[in-house]
Amino acid sequence: MVEEKFLLDANSFMTPYHLFYSFDLAPGFWKQLKPILLNKSVVVMDVVKDEVDRGNDELTEWMNSVAGLETLDRRDQTIIVQYGSILKYIQNSPLYNDKALRSWAAENVADPWLIAAAAAKGYTIITFEQSAGKISEKNPSGKPKIPDIAKEFGVKCEDIFYFMRKMNIKWI
What we know:
The protein has helices spanning 11-20, 27-36, 46-54, 58-64, 77-92, 98-105, 111-121, 146-152, 160-166, and strands at residues 5-8, 42-45, 71-72, 123-126, 157-158. Helix 8 links the parallel strand 4 and strand 5. Helix 3 packs antiparallel against helix 4 (58-64). The two termini are 30 Å apart. The chain is α/β, with parallel strands linked by helices. It has a 5-stranded parallel beta sheet with strand order 3-2-1-4-5. The protein contains 9 helices and 5 strands.
């Protein structure tokens, strides 16, 4: 049996920090998460770390305090190849318009990089993002969603609660 490997989206940090598990109310979540981020089956990409760093807040400080945190470099050749395939898919799909391609091709947008890395390396993406639901060719979308594009590339997406169960993060 192959061990499941996880790739965390920036919203897997930001949403809990802002909505559920602030440092003052739920320090146990962050205390348990810190060593998990050093686990070889859990990966944070450089673009996700950059996104968290742009917040310049307590979450940024916490992320930078994780001694030994290694980030997955988007310049990995296998990831770059998949990234190109993802942008090409959006460009050629009748379900997405030009706005979708422009937004996902922006340098600081992590979403296509996450899918590319997950496809290349066999990760499950952990994200709060939800599918856009049914998209039609009659009204193409300008807002691609990670679960929808990931599905096209055979990538599994789950939420933080799935991850917490798998990593045995519990309230003690």
